[in-house]
Specification:
Blueprint lengths: L28 H31 L9 H6 L27 H28 L4
């Protein structure tokens, strides 16, 4: 029996770490908790959106000519911009291999929305058939 090393698990989506900043003294505990929850939810949504863009970029083969060595080495899009990058529309959600031009980003967003709709429709169909979980 070989001594197998456990494979590192890859997160399904990139992770954004956002800070709530310093707590203002006038906020109640409930207000502060709601603010922190909202920021965590927003950071999770940012990661999902970037992950969807990365999947689409990989599907379209953009990682093959990416300026980032990591994307070419991993054979998938893994690039990301700085979370405070405002070089174009939705810049933190768009990998660096995508030009930050509104028309390009909007076309990709529409492709993502169409695929999400298709997956949701298939999941509903499977659920009605009793195949879903």
């Amino acid at each position: 029996m070989q001594n197998e090393q456990p494979q590192p698990t890859r997160r399904p989506c990139p992770v954004f770490h956002l800070s709530a900043g310093d707590r203002e003294p006038w906020r109640t505990d409930e207000q502060w908790a709601a603010l922190v929850r909202g920021i965590k939810r927003y950071a999770r949504a940012m990661g999902v959106y970037l992950g969807l863009f990365q999947m689409l970029c990989t599907h379209r083969g953009l990682h093959r000519k990416c300026q980032l060595d990591g994307c070419r080495r991993l054979k998938r899009c893994a690039g990301r911009r700085a979370k405070d990058d405002r070089s174009g529309p939705f810049a933190p959600f768009v990998p660096p291999c995508v030009l930050p031009e509104e028309a390009i980003v909007e076309e990709m967003r529409e492709a993502i929305r169409a695929e999400v709709r298709r997956v949701r429709a298939n999941a509903r169909r499977d659920h009605r058939r009793g195949e879903g979980t």
